[in-house]
Amino acid sequence: MIKVNLLPYRAARKKENIRLQVSTFFLSIIFVTLSMYYYNISLNNKIDVCNVKVENIKNKLSKYNKIIKEITDIKNRLNILNKKTGVIKNLELNRKEPVRLLDTMTFMVIPKRMWFTSLEAKEEVVTIKGFALDNKTVADFMTRLEGSKLFDSVNLRNLKQETYNKYTNLKGFVIFCNKMPGDKATTDKANK
């Protein structure tokens, strides 16, 4: 019988398997190392791009913050100007109020039967103090005031017998009137 020695073949095959496994291991390590290096470079590039974007956004944000501050300053100045303009308009509207009040009072007074000692207008309240010859004159005057549409309510605060200079038996009166809101009174006056 013929005997074949397979030991060198098995040993050569075993050596070949070991060499193949070692070369596969080293190639795997080289591949993993190259992959990690590439991934690291890729991440560093992304980080650099993100850092550049963050810097650009910070620059734009500071620029917009300056613009917002300017806009806020302009709005504040505009509000101040609007308030000043409103005050000026209010003063302009109220400038003619005392003249209109005196003009109205000249038509309301009953000639030769009464006269005023003081006429005071504060805010929405007008205080009229004066003398009349009798109670009927004061009542007629109050009726005229109520009919003028310049006043919302007319109230007699005080009516008493008084002496003024050489005149005796005069009726001293104090009347409080609430003014109508400005627009309605002005419109009614214009319509007459």
Could you describe the 3D structure shown?
With 192 residues, the protein is of the alpha+beta class. It has a domain of 96 residues: General secretion pathway protein M, EpsM (Gyrase A, domain 2), CATH 3.30.1360. The protein contains four helices and four strands, in the order ααββαββα. A four-stranded antiparallel β-sheet has the order 1-2-4-3, covered by helices on one side. The longest helix has 89 residues. The protein is rod-shaped and about 175 Å long. The chain starts with 6 loop residues before the first helix and ends with a helix.
Tags for this model:
Gyrase A, domain 2; 4-stranded antiparallel beta sheet; 4 strands; 65% helix; 23% strand
